[in-house]
Amino acid sequence: LPQLMESGGGSVQAGGSLRLSCKYRYGWYCMGWFRQAPGKEREGVAFLHAHGRSKYADSVKGRFGISVDDTSDTLYLQLDSLNPEDTAMYYCAARTQYATADCPTGTRDYNGWGQGTQVTVTS
Q: I need a labelling partner for 108 at 20 to 30 A (CA). Which of 29, 46, 69, 92 fits?
């Protein structure tokens, strides 16, 4: 399984920004950022295909941006205009099995996970 390690979480006031990073060590077809708030199911927020296509959950469109730096094997998630509803543990995930240009969005579609990084947004 791919080894993934997130960093960059923290506490920020509403309206603020954070950038999450995820170091990976293996090749992938899709990578995604998921989040899980206390008492809620883990949900996908942003996905990136190895061919460059990205997609986002409706709740974060226009505020979050997913990108990758192949030279440093790092996946990023830029979080802007944060609000308290964005508070959650954020997880990086990788899919090493073949995927079409449209990345899947379910947790079961990804076979590698990081340990998570906490994002807390205060009002």
A: 69
Task: Report CA-CA distances (Å) from 16 to 72, 80, 81.
Answer: 26, 6, 6
How far apart CA 77 and CA 99 sit, in angstroms, is: 21
The token pair at 23 is 């170091």
Residue 66 has φ and ψ, to the nearest 5°, of -100, 140
Q: Which tens digits make up the pLDDT trace of 19-51?
A: 999 999 989 999 999 999 999 999 999 999 999
- Residue in 59, 64, 61, 86 with CA at minimum distance from that of residue 75: 64
Bridge partners for 116 per DSSP: none
Nearest-angstrom CA–CA distance, 49 and 53? 5
Contact 77, 20 (CB under 8 A): yes
Pairwise CA distance, residues 115 & 104, whole Å: 21
Q: Give residues with Cβ within 8 angstroms of 86, minimum separation 6.
A: 35, 60, 79, 119, 121
Partners of residue 119 on adjacent β-strands: 10, 88
